[in-house]
Structures are given as C-alpha cells and as structure tokens.
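pinging the channel bc i need a second pair of eyes. not urgent but kinda urgent?? the chain im working w is below, pasted from the shared doc
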Amino acid sequence: MEMRTLGSQGLTVSALGLGCMGMSEFYPPIDDVESVATIHRALDLGVTMLDTADMYGPFTNEVLVGGAIRGRRDRVILATKFGQVRGEDGSHLGINGSPAYVRSACDASLKRLGTDYIDLYYQHRVDVNVPIEDTVGTMAELVKAGKVRYLGLSEAGTETIRRAHAVHPIAALQTEYSLFSREPEGEILDTCRELKIGFVPYSPLGRGFLTGRFAKPSDVPDNDRRKVFPRFLQENFDRNLEMLRRLEAMAARKDCTKAQLALAWALAQGTDIVPIFGCKRRKYLEENLGALNVSLSAADLAELDAMFPRDVAAGKRYPDAAFASINR
C-alpha cells in the first residue's frame, strides 16, 4: 500500500481511505455484517484510514466502525467529525461549533467508537455564528488532553482555513472533489498547499455516478439520498451519462474499470491528496483499490482534463438548501 502524508505534523495514511457513511445511512440497503467484513478486508489490504462522523446514522456509524476495529485499533487512522447536529429521531438540528458542544461531541464520539483517542477530528461544517478561532481553539485543547491527535476541517472556505490554521495546525481539509466536482482547484487547493495542509476528497466517484452503476434515474432507490441530488435528476442525468460513456471508453483502453480510472485521476492530482471512497461491500472495495495499479501518463491526464473540465457536470452537487453550509 502506498502511504501519503497529510499536513506538516507527521500524519501518515494509506493513499486511499475508506468512507464508512453509506454503511449506516443514506445509501441503502444496510448490511452490518458485510460492512464489518469490508472494514476488516480493507485493513488486511493495507488501508489505514477509516472515515466516519457522529451524524451518520445518526450516531450508529461510529458504533459500527468502533466495533469493527476492536482489537485492531493500532492499525487504524480513525477520522470522525462533529458539528452537524442531529436528534435521536434523525432530525437535522443545525450546525454547532461552540466550545461546549465541541467538548461534548468529542466525548460522545469517543464513547461510541470505544477508543480513548481520535486520530483526525474534523469540524464537519463551519458554524458562522461562532468564531473559527473559538472552535479550533477548543479542538486544540482536545489535542493537549490526548483525546485527539490531528485536526481537520470540512467544506471550509479559504479565509476560514487561514484563520483556523493560525490557531492550530490543520492536518487536512475534507471537501468534495472528483472528475465531476473540480471546484477546489485553484484557490482552495492552492491555500492548502501554501499552508502545507493535506487534502482529502470525499465522493471521488461522484456519489457512485462515475462507477456506471446507474443507467437511468429510476435505478436510484426511492429511499436513497441521491434521489434528490440534482445530478441524478432526469433533466441532468442524460447529459452526465454521456460524459460517463467517454470515461468508459478510456477505461476500456486502460484495461481498468471506470471507478478505478476516476480514483487514479484523483490520486494523480498530488501526493498530498488522499481520496476516501464510500464502500460497503468487499467486492467493490477490492475493485476500487485496483486504482493504485492504474498508471496515467501526462497525455492520459490531459485527455481527462479535456473530457471533464471544471463545471462540466450538469446540475449542482447538492440541493440548494445544503449549499448554505458549504465553503464558509
């Protein structure tokens, strides 16, 4: 397994990480037994970074991941997040970055995960009602207390990143990034590289669209979160599918799958980039890890850049209401 470094404080992780969200919510069906087997297989194959959050489930994904790594904790870089508040009934209660909430959220995550420390602790979304200095200052206290090793932000804007990093070194920024979502290129990535902050793309497979799993909008189950995402709606789907066919043709030439090609592209964007793909079945885990064996030449990358320029995808990456908490 290729290893990469996130940030300037020595956090070393596998070049690809495993996103565990879909194991517990949003992308049915749910199968805890297969999910745990997938986590175990990932660790056996050299994946070290597992990504979860308190709001996934809600709360149940941390319990699942914590149980799966029991007895294997020393082999895992465990990343979780706080800040998107949910009720026990699954209701969304807003964003909270207050010092008191940061402390309570961390303690609750530690308990659910069954561990006494979190390797990488992200603020899931920025709370505009709380100065980022207060939020990150409290996160830094968790580092001093030994409850957290490294700090991260998710979907933060450049000004927020700079202010946060001035309080305590930020090891990683997690933001959506893929052939379909190239918005971080330029200002966001440039800022991370200037400050020596690692970059962790989530949804590097375009929420599954780039795998070719969905041939038509009706292939998305009715209770699947993607059902309401603009890129999966009928008015955008056919255009996006046409671009996927171009990816399929190149994958055939490279003797790899579309998913492997999309992940290989993300990996090729820099050694400071560690994509996390969502996966809950061993079959797809093993397929996705095959991206590490896909070699892309400068000509291949130029072809992909031309094929998938910025803003090429039809439809926004989130429904309008979700954008209120993005890039703050």
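so The radius of gyration is 19 Å. and Residues 156 and 327 are 5 Å apart (CA to CA). — does that match what u expected or am i reading it wrong
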